[in-house]
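input
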Amino acid sequence: MFILKFSNDQRYQQEIAELVLCIQREDRNCVKLKAERLLSIINDEIKELYSKL
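output
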């Protein structure tokens, strides 16, 4: 369910698209920032799921 939501959520798609652009530009600082942001969003989502258990 989480993976389905992840792939269908526009917020994730936008973050991934921005991360890919950073990778293509070979901008390490940008990659680091975007990856941290994406992981933060995923972490928040996991915390929310656990709170519902």
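quick obs: The helical segments are 2-8, 10-25, 28-51.
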